[in-house]
Design goal:
It contains 15 helices and 7 strands. With 371 residues, it is mostly helical. The protein folds into 2 domains: 153 residues, no CATH class; 144 residues, Intergrase catalytic core (hpI Integrase, Chain A), CATH 1.10.443. α7 crosses α12.
């Protein structure tokens, strides 16, 4: 950002974000208060960070347009709609990035930025600071909730989002995983790949595993539990709790890892740590994991990410006959539709399933008697 800068500071165990003007270094109060609200609401640091950059981009756009956020609320519907559509296209052109970082963002990223901005406006409305945005509401009615209190329900109206491209993320393949495991130079990286493939956990969830509390040594299960004070910022998504069982061989390898790095692990409680350099013994963070996968790609020519290993887990469980609901629960998905996308269940597969069904149940309705 040229005129607005996102600042991050630690307040005890909380990672806090705020926005300041680069020339005066003065804090931009309303957006910064909103970011603190998000932090205190226990949103993940990554979510708050994205909100911060979304708002910093929007402030820059407002400066260019010579407008203020409260002035936008006073616009008529059509003018407001054009304002936010133009903001989306401004983002799409990459104007919100520094010159050396100039990349064209995808439509989903642009839409996510605008949704963050809309949430800020809604927060300011609830605080009594701003009027309602007309592009968000075109009708409303008042009803009573279960306690008998009046509640105002509104219909969402903004239709100007960019059409999002479908994410084309494939699942990792078993032969690729085997190649990566052989290419690793230490058992920590091997264990991380194995756990990602056998649990289906997100990388942030894996990095938040506490080896003193989350491992059931009798039943060979590993749990993820929401914590917001991990030194590496790792935490379970949606504040959820899940357990996953790993194979006997992988659990034995986990025991080998714990013995191999026993001295380094004793300095803290998280399972995955840095094993060399000045940070040896400190908790491994997400950036270090992705750096490792990039090194593996350079070494083997195989591109695999933690997310691809998560999809591998889903695909393999489906091939093994797991029900979709069970796979969805294992992955921690809120909606079954998300699991279906993970598994790439396409029209051809649905048609094949229908053919198999009607082959067994071809006379459900006695249609022949109707002819």
């Amino acid at each position: 950002m040229e005129h607005y800068k996102v600042i991050s500071e630690m307040d005890g165990t909380l990672q806090c974000y705020y926005i300041c003007e680069t020339e005066t270094l003065e804090m931009v109060l309303e957006p910064s208060r909103y970011l603190m609200h998000k932090t205190m609401s226990n949103k993940s640091p990554n979510t708050v960070r994205r909100n911060a950059y979304s708002l910093a981009a929007y402030l820059e756009y407002l400066r260019i347009e010579n407008k203020t956020a409260d002035q936008v609320t006073a616009m008529e519907y059509e003018e407001q709609s054009s304002h936010f559509v133009n903001f989306l296209h401004w983002l799409k052109d990459g104007n919100h990035r520094e010159i050396e970082e100039h990349k064209i963002p995808n439509n989903g990223t642009c839409n996510a930025y605008l949704k963050d901005v809309f949430r800020f406006y809604l927060f300011m409305e609830m605080q009594g600071k701003y009027e309602s945005l007309k592009v968000l509401y075109y009708d409303s009615f008042t009803t009573l909730n279960s306690a008998g209190a009046k509640r105002r329900l509104r219909y969402r109206a903004f239709k100007g989002y960019l059409k999002e491209e479908e994410r084309k993320v494939r699942a990792a393949e078993q032969n690729e995983i085997l190649t990566l495991l052989k290419a690793c130079t230490n058992c920590r990286d091997q264990l991380l790949i194995l756990l990602a493939a056998e649990t289906g956990y997100r990388i942030g969830e894996i990095l938040g595993i506490d080896y003193t509390k989350d491992i059931d040594f009798k039943n060979h299960t590993i749990r993820i539990y929401f914590r917001d004070d991990n030194e590496n910022g790792a935490r379970a998504k949606n504040a959820e709790y899940r357990r996953a069982k790993v194979s006997k061989e992988t659990f034995e390898f986990l025991m080998y890892y714990l013995a191999e790095y026993r001295k380094l692990l004793q300095s803290q409680q998280l399972l995955f740590i840095n094993i060399a350099g000045d940070d040896a013994g400190k908790a491994l963070d997400v950036d270090a994991v992705y750096s490792m996968f990039r090194r593996m790609e350079h070494k083997t020519g195989i591109k695999v990410t933690p997310h691809m290993l998560r999809r591998y887990f889903a695909v393999m469980r489906r091939k093994a006959g797991w029900r979709l609901e069970m796979i969805s629960e294992a992955l921690g998905h809120k909606h079954l539709e998300t699991t279906i996308k993970y598994l790439n269940i396409v029209d051809d597969e649905l048609l094949e399933a229908s053919d198999a069904y009607y082959a067994k149940h071809s006379a459900l309705y006695n249609v022949q008697q109707l002819l």
